[in-house]
Design a protein that fits this description.
Helix content is about 35%, strand content about 15%. The protein is of the alpha+beta class. It has a three-stranded antiparallel beta sheet, covered by helices on one side. It starts with 20 loop residues before the first strand and ends in a 15-residue tail after the last helix.
């Protein structure tokens, strides 16, 4: 079989799981603090909100992969702790993943609003 011919999969072959990820303009050394700041005050960290929405069924797995000195790939997956939870609560799992990445984008937007217009790294004093 040549490399140009399509490969046929077995009838019941399992497709490898795709782990959602996002590349953010944060140095790898600061990525953990960035995620902690992004999730502060969200339902992903509030145990009472997780209990009400049955999200204690999922284990949150976050992985940080350095892309270069100024960018980091953040991978997030919610893995079911109970057998069949990934299938039975699929929409809840997707909702948890979406909320994680929305929180990252909100934190990026918040940081962009508080940057100096001249490109400095210090935040703008909101009192002025």
């Amino acid at each position: 079989m040549s490399e140009l011919e399509p490969r046929k999969r077995r009838k019941k072959a399992v497709v490898p799981r795709r782990i959602p990820s996002e590349v953010v303009p944060v140095p790898p050394a600061q990525a953990r603090d960035f995620v902690r700041d992004a999730l502060k005050g969200t339902s992903l960290r509030d145990p009472f909100a997780q209990l009400l929405s049955f999200e204690l069924v999922f284990e949150q797995r976050v992985r940080y992969v350095p892309v270069d000195e100024t960018h980091t790939r953040i991978e997030f997956d919610a893995v079911g702790q109970l057998p069949g939870a990934d299938v039975l609560m699929y929409t809840r799992r997707l909702g948890e993943i979406d909320r994680f990445f929305v929180a990252l984008h909100d934190e990026l937007d918040r940081r962009a609003r508080h940057r100096r217009p001249d490109g400095g790294d210090r935040a703008i004093d909101e009192g002025r």
